[in-house]
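Fold this sequence, please.
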Amino acid sequence: MIPLVLVLALALVAGLAWYFHRRRTGPWRDLATRYGMAYHPNGGELLRRFGAFKTFSLGHSGRARNLLHETDKTQETFVADFCYATGQGKDRRTHEVTVCILVRPGLQLAPCFLRREAPLDVLGKIFGGQDINFAQDGDFSQAYLLQGEKEDDVRLLFNPRVRRFFSGRKEENLHFEARGDTVLVHTGRLVGPERARDLVAQAREVLALWA
């Protein structure tokens, strides 16, 4: 039987999360209106369309909210809050990030995933976890965990110019994924509506490496 104190604590956490997200809804809707973007409080369509991305398969109970979407002559742009959980019960943790997804028809990028290396990644490598390194580029390889479905294709994608770009932006904590004509970028945290255009600009700068 679950202790009453634990039930009340979980209810309090859920209530605070609901209140926090309600407070974000209005500013995001206002931002969409200001820039002529479509706004959807529920971002389920984002997960249905881009569910193959690793970011959306992390943990469990993944949900997207506050989805902004626009289409112009060259690409589609999506911005949304994404949250997921790890652990269960008292060990459950909620993780939230604001993601930007750009779709540029005609691109054919090798499926890959990039983020800053973390201390526990060493254990993953010991047990066979993938990390694509470049012997000629120790700075990049020490800074980032790079994974992909076809290693040779990922190595071609991450040419010296691309590696220099990411090496020069280690402090921005960029998380990057690519798959075909689509890239996903986030900085490992939620951003407020006032910083949403900055996130889009970062994603466009990354996309410009290949587009």
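The beta strands are 38-42, 60-71, 76-86, 93-103, 109-116, 144-148, 175-180, 182-186. The radius of gyration is 18 Å.
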